[in-house]
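Course assignment 3, question 2. Fill in each field.
Student: A.L.
Task: Predict the tertiary structure for the chain below.
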Amino acid sequence: MRKIFFTIVAMALLSFNATADESKEAAIRSALSMLNSQVPIVAVADAQFPGLYEVTLASGEKLYVNETGSHFIVGEVYKVQTDGRLVNLTEEGKKAGRIEQLATVNPQDMIIFPAKGETKAHMTVFTDTDCFYCRKLHKEMAQINARGIEVRYLAFPRAGAGSKTEQVMESIWCADKTDQQSLFTQAKSGVTIPTLSCENSPVMSQYELGQKMGVTGTPALVLQDGTLVPGYMPADQLAKMLGVVN
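Answer field:
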């Protein structure tokens, strides 16, 4: 599917010849206009290196395009720092987008485990109630919260709609707000919880949001600066990464 998509992109780009009086952005948008409307352009901006423009699609995918739309690059772009370190410019560009996307989520639709005492940092975790490392992370919740870190859970049933996990997570998210933490922890421990459903369950919309943000597995941690960290991380390492000092 990915190969077909980028073949279409290539055809669209190669078929376009920009005229002298079109702006570069308009030229790029026009070149990409033959793409399927389900993959609209969100933004066109200068890339962080000369000669190319960064095109962000609604899927979160980024293309690097020249000013006439005759060539493009798909993939990640790195910058070599003066000290020899590599900076992933593509990932840096995605951070702000993730923060904006998370800002659209109603806190009432999150299951939040607040920091104990002063909140020094927070992170958002896309989680599945069944995955081993999701459960391992949740077992350390008391330690994480004790370090001043607030954890905001969003649903990401890996098996998708209609799966047993999705039904379990819907039962949690559809429960009374005062019961959600308890049911969530029970489910993480393998305890069978009462089956519930509701018309406005946010479970699948959160799952779709995670996919748009690049989540492919669980747990997936989104830090305050928009960094996406895949997988489990111990409480001490989390605190260090978030700059939390006890």
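Instructor remarks: The longest strand covers residues 121-127. The mean pLDDT is 84.
Grade: pending
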